[in-house]
Amino acid sequence: NVVQDDMEGQDTGQVSGVEASDLMSWSFHSPYFSGSLSKEFKLSNRTRLGFTHAAGNTRSFLIGLDNTLTASKGVLVNVLESTLLYGQSSSDPTLPLAENYRLFQISDQLEWHHTKKIYSFTKWNYAHNRPSGYDHIYQGSLGAGYFIIDKTALVWRSELSYLYTHQDQIDPLGTANLHAAVLGTSFVWSPNSWTSWQNELAVIENIKHGYDIQLSYSSNLNFRLVKNLSMGIGFTLNYDNRPVLGFKKYDTVSSVSMALQI
Predict the structure, then answer these.
(1) Sequence-separated (6 or more) residues with CB below 8 Å from residue 26
(2) pTM for the full model?
(3) Which of 86, 88, 43 is nearest to 66 (CA)?
(4) Would you say residue 39 has pLDDT above 60?
(5) 3-state secondary structure 235-246
(6) Mean pLDDT estimate for the chain
């Protein structure tokens, strides 16, 4: 999504210094794919330009550009996503916007569909997000998913995965290596060919320190304006039960975007 978490809370339980760190919210599945596999090679691309407002621990007004390239053949599906965000933010929501906000993120997910219901996947992710305290973030994930409902009007699926994260944090926090379990579910309801409503919920738990849990919920309503052009309205809520001292446990992000599908 164009929407990205604006400020991640950090675990204040000082275990060994650098391990007291955030797990980093993470899109737990690739964009909607119906599971209707084909032996033919298929390629599609979606580019979105949007405006984002974030509130909670920070206040930000951002312009975002993201691109999703999906390729499939037989039982394999590959999704390459990239995101750029730029704008103004303030680390104190009561102060004027005075800080430049720049974020870059790229990820790739490869899915292997064993049946029309069951699939496994591997995913990697890189992000540069200095406004949230990270110079570099590297993530890798292995997991499996299941289509609970797979119909034209409604697609509902869930995933369970292991997530490894390496963070190069802005001094004096140093670096951190984190291990987490991710349980996620999403459904896409398409009452007609011009409207779709997508909801996602993810629970991320630190395997080493089970008391560190994050929740992420997002909802996106999309309207097709013409054949290949659509408009989207989105909302995201991120919750961390152990934020860094002085920060709130939640952040909210709202967005409006235009998407071109090829």
Answers:
(1) 125, 139, 141, 163, 182, 202, 204
(2) 0.77
(3) 86
(4) yes
(5) EEEEEECCCCCC
(6) 77
